[in-house]
Structures are given as structure tokens and as C-alpha cells.
Write a structure and sequence with these properties.
The protein is α+β, with helices and mostly antiparallel strands. The protein has seven helices and five strands. It binds zinc ion (2 copies).
């Protein structure tokens, strides 16, 4: 079986499989980190959180985690390939759970109102996987962000 076939059949994360993968990587899943993962796992489709959003959500749930700890944890999770770090239109970073290949989706973003549409493109995923494989890289994520102006903003009277 080729590497490509092997990574293509990886199932999407469940709470248990994600935990197992973290343990495999030697990452201790503290209650705080588990809570953060839980929030991302239950994020409605199409939602993305900034560090500040996550901080507010945790505060509402009675968790006192400092913003600097959240920044550090998000960076670490992104580096491990558990979260995706997204550069959305507002200019600061947003995060969402990073599913294994081939479950990556892409984003179409309105640069004026930040309305975001998620979509999937198999050709983009295949190019990403093939390129990584050809160079001997281990694929973590394959992002494509399209910056555009949505129909509502096009209709508004304000000049683009
Ligand atoms: Zn997304
Ligand atoms: Zn718009």
C-alpha cells in the first residue's frame, strides 16, 4: 500500500482517537487542554475561534485560563497538526480542528464582512498530498483560502 493510500483511509477524529493520537505523540492531555479540544470538537460547522473567542467561551464555562496560556496552547496544537491556524480576513488568527487527510476543507472569505463559506476540493487535496509525498514530507494540512467580495457586499452602496 502506498503512503498516499494509507493516509487517504485515515478516519475522521473522534474524541477517543484524538486522545490516542495525542498520547502517541507524547502530549499530556491535561484537563485544561481536554476542555479546549472539547470546545473545538463541538464547534458548529463553519465556525472558527480566535484566541479571544476561546478565552471568552472558557470564561463563560467557569474556566480561568489566561489569554497567554491560550495563545501558547493554540500555537502548540497547530504545530502538532491538531488545530488549523487560519489567516482569515480580519487580520488575526482563527483556529479550528484539523481533521486528517482527506477531510480538509477550504475557505471562501468575504474581505468586507468576513462571511466565510467552507468547501471541499478533491483536486486541491490530491495536489497537496502528492506534493508532500513526492518531497518526503508528512502532510498535516492542506489549506486554500480564497479572498473575495460576497454578493451582499457587492450590492451595498459603499465603494469596494
Ligand atoms: Zn473551516
Ligand atoms: Zn460580504
Amino acid at each position: 500500500m502506498s503512503i498516499l493510500e494509507k493516509i487517504m483511509i485515515a478516519p475522521p477524529y473522534t474524541a477517543a482517537s484524538l486522545k490516542a493520537e495525542l498520547n502517541e505523540k507524547g502530549w499530556r492531555l491535561t484537563p485544561q487542554r481536554e476542555k479546549i479540544l472539547h470546545i473545538f470538537q463541538n464547534l458548529p460547522k463553519g465556525n472558527h475561534l480566535s484566541a479571544e473567542d476561546l478565552h471568552n467561551t472558557l470564561q463563560q464555562e467557569g474556566e480561568a485560563i489566561s489569554l497567554s496560556t491560550i495563545y501558547r496552547t493554540l500555537k502548540l496544537m497547530a504545530r502538532m497538526g491538531i488545530l488549523r491556524e487560519l489567516e482569515l480576513a480580519e487580520g488575526h488568527k482563527h483556529y479550528e480542528l484539523n481533521q486528517p487527510y482527506p477531510y480538509h476543507h477550504h475557505h471562501l472569505i468575504c474581505v468586507r464582512c468576513s462571511k466565510t463559506i467552507e468547501f471541499k476540493s478533491d483536486p486541491v487535496l490530491k495536489i497537496g498530498a502528492k506534493t508532500a509525498q513526492k518531497e518526503g514530507y508528512h502532510l498535516l494540512d492542506c489549506q486554500l483560502t480564497i479572498h473575495a467580495v460576497c454578493p451582499t457586499c457587492q450590492r451595498s452602496l459603499l465603494p469596494i
